TrEMBL record:
This is Beta-amylase. Residues 143-159 have a biased composition (Low complexity). The gene is LOC104784731. The lineage of its organism: Eukaryota, Viridiplantae, Streptophyta, Embryophyta, Tracheophyta. Its EC number is 3.2.1.2. Residues 36-58 have a biased composition (Polar residues). It catalyses: Hydrolysis of (1->4)-alpha-D-glucosidic linkages in polysaccharides so as to remove successive maltose units from the non-reducing ends of the chains. The keyword Hydrolase applies. Belongs to the glycosyl hydrolase 14 family. It holds the Pfam family BES1_N.
Length: 691
């Protein structure tokens, strides 16, 4: 299983690690197996490495002797130490699984444990093992830019940095800078989209995988006293009256690991307790990812929906609704990802022999976060195309969970269209070194997309255009430093316009094809597609970050109208991921990257309104205070809109223990009432809350 896991992650593992994993698994499965066989088989390679180091020492001048001269007693002591160490490792594994509420596989190896502990300590651990400090560590990687704890969405990562901008910055005194607070929302865009991935080292174990409780308290003063934060709400806070405004349903996103890798409820009792609280404050429902890597994880067309059936029944019994996301991407490499859920094992096996099934950058680096759109119609997945795989998965969901679809418990089905479930190219992967506000790179260099580009160039009669641009810089370039994205650059030349039109059309065609299949499967049910707000470099002519993400939206062209029209064609809702709280009272934080989050949001919303496409919204930065909630309300209710337009639903990210605590629940209930258009008494007073 250890070997399978590393095949899955596309990494190799040394023999000593494999032996260790095998040994630890045996001990974890049966504590009776702590005998000499285990110790001998598990320690052979490590003992060999020790002996080799001894040889190196004795082979140097003054060392003398040989490896054979080492006393027999010392060898025995080494074996005993190894045996003792492995027994301890097995007990640690068992204890963490049973009592620590860690989402560890039954066959978890030492790497899984180390990753879980590292994440709790505030580090970011990617699926391939790459590990770096989160924002709260305050360290900087080579090059001077702060390490980015990237997450699940494009809009999420885009927070501002200052020269070079840092996604999250913490001062030596422990205070969070405005830059850090404003950047929290970058979910997965490359991190963009909504998803938090860094975990402060000072938080308690039950908050592992969530952001610090203070993350959402933007706009409030924060004092740090003996590592405890005292939050003060401004006494002169003015609030709008939303009573009588249209009713906007409120959904709360469930934890990413609510269903474990065996497709079982990870914590049934804890979840039920939280669902009852949500019901008591009149939340309309919950939103949950249905992970491809869990349901069809082991063999093609063998689906396991057991955990989801149990979850949906719990929600149904409480008379709540469900929004589901068909998650055809991996979880674990973005901001906010506190669990690791890779693509199905059998897909990873195919990727080992045919890595072109993944998106690829100009340097040939593969990104296994999701499948390339180039194989949508290529029979490379054991006789099926990617579109057929997605269709079969959705059809299985529709058949196996039919009662929840037909009785209206499932109110919306969001179709995953790319990384983080968002419709975009994975143009800003932190695993490949991207840091905000880099322009990112085009992701069209797998052989299937290159074949499509060659065909498009040939049809134009310019076969020499069958290539990607060679003057776009690298992931962390700025527009003016490249020949392609600079003002008057090649992006607006004949070849540039051809390439960008093709690149963006591949994105639109992918959405068009999958949404047509989804509509066929789910018929009258509401379907949706998620779009991130890629706002950095919006105030430049080229809109470079949007171009690499697949949105052909330079200053002289509307890149979102065609996407909105495609959604309208299939009756799909546009689910927009945004981080409105991050810009609260900090408009200057985005000047360095010439970003304008609110402008991007309004362009996307207007494109949807113009095509009469319904809009749902999802926040990317957790918030527990009144100031942040008021900012969210303005982005959902549009109080100054003479047409009184509003959203079809709002999804709050995410259900964490902090949300369920005392005053946080009270504030969230006020927020829910206002979204529902109910009358809420406003109390202008100053209070303190310790988190």
């Amino acid at each position: 299983m250890a070997t399978d896991m590393h095949k899955l992650l596309g990494t190799s593992e040394e023999d000593d690690d494999e032996d260790m994993d095998m040994d630890v698994k045996e001990e974890d499965d049966d504590h009776r197996n702590r005998g000499t066989t285990r110790a001998a088989s598990g320690s052979s390679n490590e003992e060999f490495m020790f002996q080799q180091s001894m040889q190196d020492q004795v082979g140097t001048p003054g060392g003398g002797g040989s490896r054979r001269s080492r006393p027999l007693e010392e060898k025995e002591r080494t074996k005993l130490r190894e045996r003792h160490r492995r027994a301890i490792t097995a007990r640690i594994l068992g204890g963490l699984r049973r009592h620590g509420n860690y989402n560890l596989r039954v066959r978890a190896d030492i790497n899984d444990v180390i990753a879980a502990l590292a994440r709790e300590a505030g580090w970011v651990v990617l699926p391939d093992g790459t590990t770096f400090p989160s924002k709260s560590q305050g360290t900087k990687p080579p090059g001077g830019s702060s390490a980015v704890a990237a997450g699940s969405s494009a809009s999420h990562i885009a927070s501002q940095q200052t020269s070079p901008p840092a996604l999250r910055v913490v001062s030596s005194g422990g205070h969070r800078s405005p830059v850090e607070l404003s950047s929290c929302r970058m979910k997965g865009v490359f991190a963009p989209g909504p998803s938090p991935y860094d975990i402060p080292p000072t938080q308690s174990p039950e908050l592992v995988g969530s952001v610090n409780k203070a993350d959402g308290l933007v706009g409030c003063s924060v004092d740090v006293i003996n590592s405890k934060q005292i939050l003060e709400i401004p006494p002169n806070l003015t609030e709008q009256d939303f009573s009588g405004t249209p009713y906007v349903p409120v959904y709360v996103m469930l934890p990413l690991g609510v269903i474990n890798m065996k497709c079982e409820l990870a914590d049934r009792d804890g979840l039920l307790k939280h669902l009852r609280i949500l019901k008591s404050i009149h939340v309309d429902g919950v939103k949950v990812d249905c992970w491809w890597g869990i349901v069809e994880g082991h063999s093609p067309q063998e689906y396991n929906w057991n955990g989801y059936r149990q979850l949906f029944q719990m929600v149904h019994d409480l008379n709540l609704k469900i929004q589901v996301l068909m998650s055809f991407h991996e979880c674990g490499g973005n901001v906010g990802d506190d669990v690791c859920i890779p693509l199905p094992h059998w897909v990873a096996e195919i990727g080992r022999t045919n890595p072109d099934i993944y998106f690829t950058d100009r340097e040939g680096r593969r990104n296994p976060e999701c499948l390339s759109w180039g194989i949508d119609k290529e029979r490379v997945l054991r006789g099926r195309t990617a579109l057929e795989v997605y269709f079969d998965y959705m059809r299985s969901f529709r058949i196996e969970l039919a009662e929840f679809v037909e009785d209206g418990v499932i109110s919306m089905i969001e179709i995953g269209l790319g990384p983080c479930g968002e419709l975009r190219y994975p143009s800003c992967p932190i695993k490949h070194g991207w840091r905000y506000p880099g322009v990112g790179e085009f992701q069209c260099y797998d052989k299937y997309l290159l074949k499509s580009l060659r065909k498009a160039a040939d049809s134009r009669g310019h076969l020499f255009w069958a290539r990607g641009p060679d003057n776009t810089g690298s992931y962390n370039s700025q527009p003016q430093g490249t020949g392609f994205f600079c003002d008057g650059g090649d992006y607006d030349g004949l070849y540039g316009r051809f390439f960008l039109k093709w690149y963006s059309q591949v994105l639109i065609d992918h959405a068009d094809q999958i949404l047509s299949l989804a509509k066929l499967v789910f018929n009258s049910s509401c379907i949706a597609a998620k779009l991130p707000d890629v706002h950095w470099w919006y105030r430049t002519a080229s809109h470079a970050a949007e171009l690499t993400a697949g949105f052909y939206n330079p200053s002289n062209r509307d890149g979102y109208a065609a996407i909105a029209s495609t959604l309208k064609k299939h009756g799909a809702t546009l689910s927009f991921v945004s981080g409105e709280v991050q810009v609260l009272n900090r408009p200057d934080d985005f000047s360095g990257a010439l970003g304008e989050p609110e402008a991007v949001a309004w362009q996307v919303l207007n494109a949807a309104w113009d095509s009469e496409t319904p809009i749902a919204r999802e926040n990317s930065l957790p918030c527990h205070d009144r100031v942040g909630y008021n900012k969210m309300l303005e982005s959902v209710k549009f109080p100054n809109d003479p047409d009184r337009r509003h959203l079809s639903s709002f999804a709050y990210s995410r259900l964490i223990p902090a949300l369920m605590e005392g005053h946080n629940v009270v504030e969230f209930e006020r927020f829910v009432k206002k979204l529902h258009g109910e009358t809420v008494m406003n109390h202008h007073h100053q209070h303190h809350q310790q988190v």
